[in-house]
Amino acid sequence: MALKIKAVERLLKFDKESTGKYRYVMKPEMYSSLNQNKVIKEAALRSGVNQGVMKACWDAAGEVIKAWATEGHSVALPGLGNMRFGLRSKSVENVNDVKASLITSRRIIFIPSVDLKDELAKTAVQITCYDRNGELVKRVTTDAGEVEDPEGDETGESDGKTDGSNENQNQNENGSNQNQNPEPETVNPEPGNGGGGGTEDGTDES
Asked: What is the DSSP secondary structure assignment for residue 24, as one 8-state letter?
């Protein structure tokens, strides 16, 4: 079993005057989305539990997780990790200026378990490369790699950030993010199987 990645050669430019440069941009190849019924059926087969009973348990667990998470709890997801809510907000100096409108967005934060991260880290990665004409030019396979912690630590607590996550360090005084490097503009359509936007170093930006 391997995670499939495609690297597509795309013309990227980083300002209006630039003629652009070709870079191989990588993006995961996503499989078809599994619907709830298929997951319940497979779980019932693996556990030996009647499918109707499994569906009732699935629905009940979902309701419990939703209720507790919206009450502010960090809720365990069996075999996966923990889920909790967070937010992004602006900061102010004066306590009299604190108000609900400072909250710019509410977030759902997932903290993967150690076992899940270890499983992902040891999963092989297969990269298929396509040139600018959509022709397959190379395949690369790797055995293991590091897994990024989305929150920066195991507890998911931040280092003083307002939303409980490690945000972009380019942050102005009122807490909003201002990226110093604008997202590159793609000047030609993507060949081959398609892919997402990228940065100059060829990494996926999503």
From this structure: E
Residues 6+ positions from 33 with CB-CB distance below 8 Å: none
List residues bridging with 28 in a β-sheet.
Answer: 5
CA distances in angstroms from 191 to 28, 32, 128, 130, 137, listed in the order given = 16, 21, 13, 8, 13
Predicted TM-score (pTM) of this structure: 0.55
Report which DSSP code applies to 101: G
- CATH architecture of the region 2-167: Irregular (4.10)
Closest CA to 167 of 107, 106, 88: 88
Q: Which two tokens stand for residue 21?
A: 């440069």
Q: For residues 178 and 171, what is the distance between their CA atoms, to the nearest angstrom?
A: 6
Helix/strand/coil for 47: helix
For the stretch 28-59, pLDDT in tens is 887 777 889 999 999 999 999 999 999 999 99
DSSP-derived pairing of the beta strands 124-130 and 136-142: antiparallel
Domain edges within the chain: 2-167
